[in-house]
Write a structure and sequence with these properties.
This protein has 5 helices and no strands. The protein has about 110 residues and is mostly helical. It has one domain: N-(1-d-carboxylethyl)-l-norvaline Dehydrogenase, domain 2, CATH 1.10.1040.50. Helix 2 packs across helix 4 and helix 2 packs across helix 5. The longest helix is centred in the N-terminal third of the chain and has 21 residues. The relative contact order is 0.15.
C-alpha cells in the first residue's frame, strides 16, 4: 500500500492468516452493539445526554443505530440488563477491559 505497512493487532492478524477476514459475523455484531450499549450507559452516567429516550433518538438519527431496535437503551431493556451485563463480562474476559460493563448500566432502564 504505497510503501506503508499497516500494523495489525493479534486478533486481526490471526483472521488474516486464517483466510477468514470476516470471522464470526454474529460475534462481531455482538461486540459492536454491546460496545454502543455500554457507551450509552457511560454517556448517561456522565450526563452527556439528559435521558435514555433522547440518547436513543440521537443514536438512531445521527449514528445509524437500527431504528427497529429502538436505540441502544431500548435494546438493552428488551434484551435484559442482566443479560447485557453477563455478555459484557464475557467479552471483557475474552477481549479485554474495554468491554467491562459500565458501573451504572442500570441507567439504560430510563424512566421504566
Amino acid at each position: 500500500m504505497n510503501g506503508v505497512e499497516l500494523e495489525l493487532g493479534d486478533e486481526l492478524a490471526e483472521l488474516r492468516d486464517s483466510g477468514d477476514l470476516l470471522g464470526d459475523v454474529g460475534a462481531m455484531r455482538e461486540r459492536l452493539v454491546l460496545a454502543m450499549v455500554n457507551t450509552a450507559a457511560a454517556c448517561l452516567r456522565e450526563r452527556v445526554c439528559e435521558d435514555a429516550d433522547l440518547l436513543d433518538g440521537a443514536m438512531i438519527f445521527a449514528a445509524g443505530f437500527a431504528p427497529f431496535r429502538g436505540g441502544p437503551c431500548r435494546y438493552a431493556r428488551v434484551r435484559g440488563l442482566d443479560d447485557v451485563r453477563r455478555a459484557l463480562d464475557g467479552l471483557a474476559a475474552t477481549h479485554g477491559a474495554r468491554f467491562a460493563p459500565d458501573p451504572d448500566l442500570e441507567l439504560l432502564a430510563g424512566g421504566e
